[in-house]
Amino acid sequence: MGNHKRFSGGEEEEEERRESTSSENHEGSESESGEELEIERELADVPFEELQRALADGSHLSAPLKKKKLAIENKPGRANKNRPMEVSSKIRPKKFREVVQVPKKVVRDPRFESLCGTLDTEGFRKRYNFLYDVQLPAERQKLQKMIAKSKNPDVISELKSHVSWIDKQLKSDPNKATESKILSEHIKKEKEAAKIGKKPYYLKKSEIRNRKLVQKYNELKDAGKLDAFIEKRRRKNASKDHRYMPYRRPGESSGAKQ
């Protein structure tokens, strides 16, 4: 009886194994049939001539499957859940990419912007007149002392260039002041004339220059320095003309006598 039970138990195990293998074979056949259906779908659009070539060569039949396999292998993914996804930099980007549109930076010049208003030259000179009267002369004296104490030629040349810049600023300030004074006087006269009904007249740069020369002439005449100024200007112009005069060559006088 015991042996009969053993044989019956062995038969049951064999039946279970047969059932499992049959189910696996069934699943395998289903997967194979599914793959065959996919291959049939892929080959449905292929022309008959290409199929004949593929049958003759035996190389093109496996191309769709190879492509599918490569696509599965090259699918981006994370090697580990704790690592980020790695993407190869060799992959060509798309032809049309969505680029974030950044607003263009607009550069504005306050000289040509109506929002900034107009420059008030008289008000500017009144507010910042202390720069030309106090600060720039004091800075010039300080730089002159530094030049006298310093022994480094590079530092001395830099300080001298700064001193020359200050001299230019101090020299140009009176000219600008006289120009603004001439313009303000002319504007006052034109405003009075406009009240009567006359059209306004705007001064040209050449007219402002001529009025400046007339004003300087009157100031020098009143101070008694007109003759010295004219002599200085004459010598300066003579030195300029002397530069462009042709020089006599060494052999010209002897050649002329012969």
Automatic annotation (TrEMBL):
Residues 17-29 have a biased composition (Basic and acidic residues). It is found in: Nucleus, Nucleolus. Component of the 90S pre-ribosome involved in the maturation of rRNAs. Required for early cleavages of the pre-RNAs in the 40S ribosomal subunit maturation pathway. This is rRNA biogenesis protein RRP36. Keywords: Nucleus, Ribonucleoprotein, Ribosome biogenesis, rRNA processing. Belongs to the RRP36 family. It comes from Rhynchospora pubera. The keyword Lyase does not apply. Associates with 90S and pre-40S pre-ribosomal particles. GO terms for cellular component: 90S preribosome; nucleolus. Residues 30-39 have a biased composition (Acidic residues). The keyword rRNA processing applies. Residues 1-43, 55-89, 232-258 are annotated as: Disordered. The lineage of its organism: Eukaryota, Viridiplantae, Streptophyta, Embryophyta, Tracheophyta. InterPro entries: RRP36. Its main location: nucleus. GO terms for biological process: maturation of SSU-rRNA from tricistronic rRNA transcript (SSU-rRNA, 5.8S rRNA, LSU-rRNA). Pfam families: RRP36.
